[in-house]
Amino acid sequence: MKTKIKNSLNNIEDNKIYYEYNNNFFILLLHFLYKLIGRKILLNKKFSKFFYKNIYNKHYEIILRKANIKLLPEEYFISILLILVFTILSIFITSFIYLFINIMKGLIIFYVGIMLLLIIGILMYNFPIVIFKQRGKEIDASLPYLLPYMKILAKEISLSQIINIIDDFLIYKEIKVEFKKIKYYSDFLGYDIQSSIRESMVSCPSKELSDLMNDLVTISNSGGNIYNYLERKLSNLDLEINAIEKKNIDTLLIFSQIYVVVLLISPLFFTIMSTILNLISFGSETISSGGNSTASNILLLLVILPFLYVGFMMLIYYSKPLYSRLKPIET
Known about the structure:
By secondary structure, the protein is mainly α. 84% of the residues lie in helices and 0% in strands. The protein folds into three domains: 2-132, no CATH class; 136-236; 241-324.
């Protein structure tokens, strides 16, 4: 009976984990790698002592929370260590086999594998840091869409009611996650709204949102006017957005000049000059070089220029402020 209950609980846990991470294969892989292998080897006292002394980083608990990666630091570091061990074994086995076939190939595979191992290790170690910084940028970019709603609601209702209502209006993923945390602390753990906000903001990757919510708690506790505060905050944000938009327009003007000169006038001038030189060519040697010139023109027009145009379009798109590139949650 106990075994059946234990299996049922494990199935529920697995389904929950899979549901939460089904859009992130890497995190799902790390979780099950720890569950299948890592948890068992961590029970070894010698390895556990070595792990917590030399590999484990306690600061990654808050980093993983800010990145919204629902893994313990033990899970993350053990899983990464296992992946690196498997990679090392693959490198040694492959290079050892090739040493009997071709010594030079075996050495090349070994050195390339070591470089690849270092790159994988650095990327995995910094993966949560990159994620939480990206989340922070997206949350900051969502604030211009959040503040007007909060300002309207603050005129009539209290802070706790604002938090309960605003979650239904949020359509941007990362900022919605942070408000879900507040509701988790208040609805599931039973905290009051002020404590829920303070607890959830500890793991918030955005300093702007964290400062905003902590200010709202302070104003609410002191009996201040939240509406007036949000009005001033929104006014300052509008000035900041206007400055960003002006800077973006200046950047687009520079890009447009580059586009006209490099991607419109230059290919046209090059094509015209090549055509004129071909027309005034009379010798056979010159004619043959003219044929090469025609081939280079075709290569320029049909192959190189389309890639340059696509690259320039991407440059224009990513030069825009992040708040204008945010995509709402698909429902």
